[in-house]
Structures are given as structure tokens and as C-alpha cells.
Amino acid sequence: MVPTIIVGNGITGVTAAQAIARAEPGTAVHIYAAEPHLTYRRPQLPAYIAGEVAAAAITHRPPAWYEEQNIHLHLGCPVAELDAPAHRLRLEDGTSIPYQRLLLATGGRAWMPPVEGAALEGVFTLRTLDDARTIRARARHVRRAVVVGGGILGLEIARALRALGLAVTVLELSDHLMPRQLDREGGAVLQGILEEMGIHVLTQSATAAILGNGEVSGVQLKEGGRIPADLVVCATGWRPVVELAQQAGLTVDRGVVVDKYLQTSAEDVYAAGDVAEVGGRLYGIIPPAIEQARVAGANMASPGSATYTSTLPSTTLKVAGAELTSLGKCVVDDTQLLQLRHVDLERRHYRKFVVEEGRIVGAILLNERARTPAVRRLIREGVDVSAHTSQLLDDDFDLTSLSTKQVAALP
Ligand SMILES: Cc1cc2nc3c(=O)[nH]c(=O)nc-3n(C[C@H](O)[C@H](O)[C@H](O)COP(=O)(O)OP(=O)(O)OC[C@H]3O[C@@H](n4cnc5c(N)ncnc54)[C@H](O)[C@@H]3O)c2cc1C
Q: Which of 219, 236, 286, 310 is surrounded by the most beta carbons within 10 Å?
């Protein structure tokens, strides 16, 4: 029987394989993976760098799990070419294999800005376990690090390097940290937390060049000044891995374009996770990747059986005991939207709600763990909070008391 094939063994590939195995017990699913490792949890890589977890502890599933599910894993086996009309793949070693249905779960790769000095020894990006190993090996023997990029990944890396005892400077282009998930007020609270940990933060700082002679020695700032460094990690974004789809002539924009069934422009070829562009959108985080993988897997087993629309963007950063959650449309410059804020710099608390047509559409919650589940539900269910906007920020207002039913029952 012609097999079902998945390219990529990140969380998307493995979740989709499981969905197919469940929907069609007995079907042989083959996963072809460029990396030589069993699927691991990428969010744990900073903790691995810090020496807080071992590589074995971040593995997602043991080998026996694959056998039980009839999933055949081909590690260190990159796919080089897709011939969609012929329903065939060519592996890098030249082997040609047929497929009945195919999932592209090729994910993303770290994006390195085209800056002078990026190729010097000691300059890294972080996406894979192998990247993390190299960073850790160097970090254990040097003293000063610069992290370019003050987004969530940059801050996780900075925390890990600081935990190893390095002097760490974070450079952020914007005027505050985590500009995609935080506004200026929230950024200021977060910066205070990082500085307490001994992490030096420079906002509105652009990297002009990475300096060194063979090996990195520092970073030259566009606004003037140099920061000495023995290790530089660029956490400046990621890009979907679209080459396979592009070469095969599939529709590709920023990612591989898919419809609501997660089908690409080619028959029997699906895409999900970081590589997929759904409704013009790339996500780059795990919750949508898992939801898409389940939908794609269901459709590969039984075409047209499941649809995907969107996932509420949600990120959580845990740093120095602080917990920061950003939900939905939380950074907006639309003056038509109501933006409610509560800042407590001393206690390191920050709470913000964005309200559109009486409904919370976005929120930032820093050290507000108790409120997070209630807010997440209010956004997901689109509960009308218009009668309560003056109370939403009150410390003693019970957000769990609001529900679709209760609001509908109001006169
Ligand atoms: C350090 C780090 C921390 C993160 N933290 C968080 C977090 O806290 N929360 C969150 O939601 N998200 C986080 N993310 C993002 C999250 O890891 C991604 O959204 C997720 O990994 C996407 O899964 P994926 O399976 O689609 O792609 P990937 O994980 O990128 O996996 C794709 C796999 O496909 C393989 N591949 C590519 N091309 C081929 C080919 N031609 N042949 C065979 N194999 C191929 C790649 O080698 C890779 O192993 C983090 C990412 C990183 C790097």
C-alpha cells in the first residue's frame, strides 16, 4: 500500500501522525526528519542551555510510542524534492518514494539579519538542539554575552545565559521589550524584573555590526558605542521553511498557503504548523501548530472531515519568578478601541484589557496568574463586558462571574 508521509518531526509532524493513526488504525505513517533527534520540546532549549534540564528530559515521546502507533520514523533523512503531480518525494540520498497523502510540517528556521560579522565564531541563532548544544558549550567558557532582540525568545536566552553566570546585555530595537506582546508600560515593568536579575537592557538599540577577527569580540551600535562580547545570540525572528513547496510549484506567500482543510494548492498535499500560512497569517507558536496538525491529520485520513479557522494567539513568558501572558489583540494603536490599564511598578504587576465593541479582544497580564484563565475564557467566548468596563481593573472584581449566559440575562 502506498504510504502516508509527513515531512518534519517537530510537534506538528508528530501530532498529525498521531491524529492519522487514531483516525485510521493500522495505516502506516512515515515521518522523514532532517534532524537526527527524536522530537523534543523547543521551548525547553533555553533551560537546556542553562543546564537546568538534560537533553533526554526534553524528548517528547520515547521510541516505543512510535512503534505502538505504527509510525515509522526516519531520522537524519531530509527530503530534497517533491513531485506533486507524480505523488513522489526524493530523499537527499537519492531514493525516490511514492506517497498517497503528504503533510509538509517543515516548520521554521531562525532568521539572521544581514549584519556584518554574522559569520564570526561565537555568533549564533537558536532553533535546534544542536544550536543549543553549541551555545552551551561556548557559554560555559566565556564571560560576556550580547543577545540581539528583546522578544520572548531573546529574553529566555538572556535568562539562561545569566543563569550560567555571564554578564548579559539585551539589545532591543523598539523603545520597549517584547514589542509584539507588550506595550510600553508593560515593557517597563518587565525591564525592571530583568534588571533585578542583573540583565542589562538597552532599548532603541540597533546593531550596526558584529565585531571580531575570526572570533566575536563585541557589537557595534548604530547610535554609537561598542559592547564587548565573547558570545552573541541573534534572536531576531524566524522564517518558514518553504523551499520544498516552492520548488514543487505550490502556492507560497510568506508561508505555504493552505485552505481551511489545511490543504495546499496541490492535490493530496497538506501543510500545518510554523510552515503554513492560513488566512494570510503565520503563527510561529505551539498551540496553533497542534490544532492545525490535528485538523490536517483528520483530513489526511478522511478528506474534508475537519476545518481550521484560527487560534487565539497566546504567549507566556516565565522569567525570574514573574509570569507574563499576552492574549489576542493586545498591542494596538487604534484609538477606537478601549484600552484599560493598571500598572503597579513596585509590586511588578501589570494588567491591561483591550475592549472592542463591548468584548475583550486582547489582554496583557504580568504577575496576574490567578486572573489569566478567566480572561482567556472571556476572550474565547466573546463575553459582553460593556456593563462592567469601569470595574474590570478593580482588584476585587470577580472576572469569573461574567459569562455569556449571565450577560444575556441582563435587561
Ligand atoms: C528556543 C525556542 C523556544 C520557543 N518557545 C516557545 C514557547 O514557549 N511557546 C510556544 O508556543 N512556542 C515556542 N516556540 C516556537 C515553537 O517551537 C514552534 O512554534 C514549533 O516548534 C513549531 O512546530 P513545527 O513542528 O511546525 O516546526 P518545527 O518545530 O520547526 O519542526 C520542523 C521540523 O521539520 C524538519 N524539516 C525541515 N525541512 C525538512 C526536510 N526537507 N526534510 C525533512 N525534515 C525537514 C526540521 O528539521 C524540523 O525538525 C519556541 C521556539 C524556539 C526555537
A: 219
Element (H, E) at 66: helix 63-68
What cell does 175 get?
A: 523603545
Distances (CA, A) of 78 to 276, 292, 325: 19, 22, 36
**Is the same domain home to 246 and 222?**
no
Domain span at residue 158?
A: 123-234
Please say which residue of 189, 212, 234 terminates a domain.
234
67, 216: one domain: no
Check whether residue 246 and residue 202 sit in a common domain: no
Ligand 1, pocket-test mutation among 9, 40, 42, most atoms within 8 A of CB = 42
Considering the entire predicted model, what is its pTM? Answer: 0.92
Pocket lining: 131 vs ligand 1, CB cutoff 6 Å? no
Residue 307 lies in a domain: no
What number of other Cβ atoms are within 10 A of residue 295's Cβ? Answer: 24
Q: Are residues 218 and 135 in the same domain?
A: yes
In the predicted model, is pLDDT for residue 406 greater than 60? no
pLDDT at 407: 46
Protein residue with least CA distance to atom 38, ligand 1 = 106
The 3-state secondary structure of 39-55 reads CECHHHHHHHHCCCCCH
Q: Are residues 280 and 243 in the same domain?
A: yes
Q: Quick check: is 385 in a domain?
A: yes
User: Which pLDDT band, with edges at 50, 70 and 90, does 85 fall under?
Assistant: very high
CB atoms within 10 A of CB 339: 16
**205 C-beta neighbours (distance < 10 Å), count:** 21
Mean pLDDT across 175-192:
88
What end-to-end distance do the CA atoms of the chain give, in Å? 62
Nearest to 310 by CA among 354, 358, 260: 260
Determine, yes or no, domain membership for 390: yes
- At 320 the pLDDT is 66
In a domain, 31, yes or no: yes
Could you read off the pLDDT of 339-356 as tens digits, one per residue?
999 988 778 888 999 999
Task: Please give the distance, rounded to the nearest whole angstrom, from the Cα atom of residue 128 to the centre of ligand 1.
Answer: 8
* CATH label of the domain that carries residue 192: 3.50.50.60
User: Is 13 a pocket residue for ligand 1 (Cβ < 6 Å)?
Assistant: yes
Give the model confidence (pLDDT) of 186-196 as tens digits. Answer: 888 899 989 99
